[in-house]
């Protein structure tokens, strides 16, 4: 299932299920995961992306290894709500993943300004641009996931 409705997303989550979050970009995918109690989000990894097929394969393997079915996905819509070209690629990825496992439960979460917020925070910690760019996607995924966990 792919939804942008929070209540619909959480209805399909079992008590012991972890939740993951993806910050999907054109070159990298940031990944974060929750603890089983769904209280704390943790940055997990960054997946380098060369094409959509590779992204789909890598994500499916990761979800299988971590036993993940419930995934929050950063939804990079414009401030006015318009869909971006990246949104179209994200939908292609999610639909392909659903064909591989129809039990996946995806929640599209508006990520407007999240990258800017995290970049500003990382910069305030004194991290150089190269270091910020190497970790920002998984930190954004963690930030988005924590926002969702705070609502549960």
Would you kindly provide a written description of the structure presented here, covering whatever features stand out?
With 152 residues, this protein is of the alpha/beta class. It has a single domain, classed as YqgF/RNase H-like domain (Nucleotidyltransferase, domain 5, 2-Layer Sandwich), CATH 3.30.420.140. Helix content is 45%, strand content 23%. The chain contains five helices and six strands. It has a six-stranded mixed sheet with strand order 1-6-5-2-3-4, sandwiched between helices. Helix 2 packs across helix 3 and helix 4 packs across helix 5. It starts with a strand and ends with a helix.
Number of helices: 5
* Overall SS class: alpha/beta
* Estimated radius of gyration: 15 Å
CATH architecture: 2-Layer Sandwich
How would the global form be characterised?
Answer: globular
Strand content: 15-25%
Topology-level CATH name = Nucleotidyltransferase, domain 5
Largest sheet: 6 strands, mixed
Order of helices and strands: EHEEEHEHEHH
Arithmetic mean pLDDT: 87
CATH superfamily: YqgF/RNase H-like domain
Number of domains in the coordinates? 1
Distance from N terminus to C terminus (CA atoms, Å) equals: 19 Å
């Amino acid at each position: 299932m792919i939804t942008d409705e929070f209540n619909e997303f959480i209805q399909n989550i079992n008590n012991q299920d972890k939740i993951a979050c993806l910050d999907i970009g054109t070159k990298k995918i940031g990944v974060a995961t929750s603890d089983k109690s769904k209280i704390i989000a943790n940055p997990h990894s960054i997946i380098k992306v060369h094409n959509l097929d590779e992204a789909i394969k890598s994500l499916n393997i990761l979800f299988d290894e971590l036993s993940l079915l419930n995934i929050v996905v950063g939804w990079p819509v414009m401030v006015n709500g318009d869909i971006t070209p990246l949104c179209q690629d994200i939908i292609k990825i999610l639909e392909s993943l659903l064909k591989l496992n129809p039990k996946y439960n995806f929640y599209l979460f508006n990520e407007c300004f999240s990258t800017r917020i995290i970049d500003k925070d990382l910069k305030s910690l004194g991290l150089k641009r190269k270091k910020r760019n190497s970790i920002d996607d998984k930190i954004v995924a963690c930030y988005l996931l924590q926002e969702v966990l705070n609502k549960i």
